[in-house]
Amino acid sequence: MIPNNILKLVAVAFLSSVLFSVETTSDFKGKVTDNFGNALSDAEITITNTSTNRSSSTSANESGNFVLSNLPVGGPYTVLVRSSAGSQRYTDVYLNLGQTLSLNVVLTDFEQLVVTGDQILGSQVALGPSKVFDTADLDAAVAYNRDIKEVLAEDPRLYVDVTSSEAYSGLQCNGQNPRYNSFSLDGIAMNDGFGLNSNGYPTNRLPFSYDSIQQVSAEFAPFDVKYGGFSACVVNAVTKSGTNEVTGSAYYEYTDDGLLGTEIEGNKGMMVPFEESKIGFTIGGPLSKR
Prior knowledge:
This protein is mainly β. It has three domains: 22-125, Carboxypeptidase-like, regulatory domain (Immunoglobulin-like, Sandwich); 130-239, TonB-dependent receptor, plug domain (Ferric Hydroxamate Uptake Protein, Chain A, domain 1, Beta Complex), CATH 2.170.130.10; 247-284, no CATH class. It is elongated, with a radius of gyration of 24 Å. A hairpin with a 2-residue loop joins strand 5 and strand 6 (86-95). The chain contains three helices and 20 strands. It has helices spanning 2-19, 135-140, 148-152, and strands at 26-34, 44-49, 54-59, 65-71, 74-83, 86-95, 100-107, 114-117, 123-125, 130-133, 158-161, 170-173, 182-185, 188-189, 213-219, 234-239, 247-256, 263-264, 267-268, 275-284.
């Protein structure tokens, strides 16, 4: 009886972890038809991440539909669709975190013409209202505290409460208490399980490096069964992946009390002396070049 009970507990724990997991990848789906609207069941679809040369392939079913799941976010990707009716290529395709890129492809049999496009005619589909910020958004954001909350607050449905202090402020989603949010990094929960911090993090500041993030998303009302344990928003972040090229960045920030004013409209206030420096760097490259 004891071994059976242990197995049952392990099974319940495993199923619970699966139930409350979050998305860390993207999906790609669509339909392939000819110029008369007939489904092309012999179509082969290949999507390649040009930064890593990693490819995923699939075939269309009898209805011409195809699905590619668990694709790394970001890009750029190249999509190649081939069949007896022709072929078509799309370049500079980017995938968003937790969303599905939908694309309908029409192939013609005019001398097996290969068409190359610079912009994909597809749409990102999410299960419920959401907002995704990619690497370009993170780099361009005015995040002087180097916190993803400052980026997320660019969406009008999100608000950073700074009533106490900016370093310890929380993210309000649709007016809800910050503790009602659920934070995760690469699918791992980053919540304040004991309710000790007003920012909703398990630490006083962001528990991971701002520069390590590739994309961050806020799910406002997801109806996917993978989500749970929240009543406000699901904030999900994924870290950067290495590419075939060696890349990196560095930064240095400094501030002290001498850079702050001490007088407002003729009224002088007390300034507590302080000094703070921030330095950091990132580096990435291939473990095995493809």
